[in-house]
Amino acid sequence: MSEDCLTLNVWTPAIDDNKRPVMVYIHGGGFRTGSGNIPGEVLAEMGAVFVSMNYRLGALGFFAHEALPGMEANPGLLDVIMSLEWINSNIEQFGGDPENVTIFGISAGGAIVNLLATNDKATGLFQHAIAQSGYAAWPLHRSNTAPSAAPMNTNKDKAIDAEQHANKLIAKITDAPQTKELLYGLDGHEIVSTVTTFHVPIVDGSSIEEEPAIRAIRGQQLDISYMSGGNSFDGSSMAGGGITIPDFMQEIGSDADEARALYSDDGDDLWLTRMWGDNRYVLSARILAESMKHKSSDAWLIYTDFVEEKDKQTSLGTYHGMDGYYLLGRYTEENSVALRALSSDFKQYWFNFASTGNPNGEGLPEWPTYDRQSDNWMVFSDVREAKSGVLTKKLDFSESRYLQRIAPALAR
């Protein structure tokens, strides 16, 4: 580990004059962990030029402090933008087409996809985007340069102040006055150690203009082909975020009885964990997909609910991040037929989308575009099947609460 970490990796089928689709993977890890060290050859073998990159994490990547008034609050996001600029300038030398770039990622990587898809700074850097369990409707911290009329947080209270949060992080290291000189003199490893759960980006009005779902609802997203979705048990990540059952119950407040009725199939506490995952990830996907009605490009929605036969008696659904293993895994005859078929379809849909901006292709079940009236999702379970109304009542409930939270910002 060192500060010389802003590297990227390229896999290509050949160095020639062909213009292959470019697939750019942005890793997840709660904006705290992870790296671009992944098996990119899996999709390069299908004919794509595959790229992954590193970006700054934790307080080194997302940090706003009153002693650093001229510093961008999201250097980690700007690292990704710089990687995309490098790709646009250089990928042709690796047999890639700089005018056919797809960004995709899972969890925090999917969140970055959504931040870029709604960010003017990313205009022209990519043509297609896939956000897998990438939150966009979850509250971000806000710096003192963020737009006024901020949305509330999930407790319907004042949004979290990024500068105050930074003060608390640095206070874990030292109780000395937090001057510019002190901050630049701190050890990088100590700064990294201040973040122990999920970290979040910061609305600063510049590197991130506003929360991505708010921008999408306003019609301020890029006009790109868009795929998004989530998993049936994305709530498995709840504990890793430092969120407790009582915390989330407090957020639901007086709506608890209505929420419990919607999740009546799950037992005590489990229903809250599942709802948390739907709230954080699946709702974001539907909001951003529907918001593409403001643009000429299409959107497609994904819902992954695959469990291997041997695990069906004990599993709670498709856990957070498992779709990444299905997509990038290399499975053999030692694995089940169902898993190999699922992985094959994931890869082919994703490659088709990167190639043409449409996931459909020969030999695959038809995947309809998304609109709110039909509410069509492609469900990846034991079979691949387009279904209408996946989680409709649950997401409608959560969306109504979300719209209350962001009402001040939408009124601006």
Note the topology.
Layout: E1 8-11, E2 20-26, H1 41-44, E3 49-53, H2 58-61, H3 75-90, E4 96-106, H4 108-117, E5 128-132, E6 141-142, H5 162-171, H6 180-185, H7 188-193, E7 202-203, H8 212-217, E8 225-231, H9 245-252, H10 256-262, H11 270-291, E9 299-304, H12 322-328, H13 337-356, E10 376-380, E11 384-388, H14 392-410
Q: Can you characterise this structure?
A:
The chain is of the alpha/beta class. The chain has one domain: Rossmann fold (3-Layer(aba) Sandwich). 35% of the residues lie in helices and 14% in strands. It has a 9-stranded mixed beta sheet with strand order 1-3-2-4-5-8-9-10-11, sandwiched between helices. It has a two-stranded parallel ribbon with strand order 6-7. Strand 10 (376-380) and strand 11 (384-388) form a beta hairpin. Helix 12 crosses helix 13 (337-356). It starts with 7 loop residues before the first strand and ends with a helix. The mean pLDDT is 96.
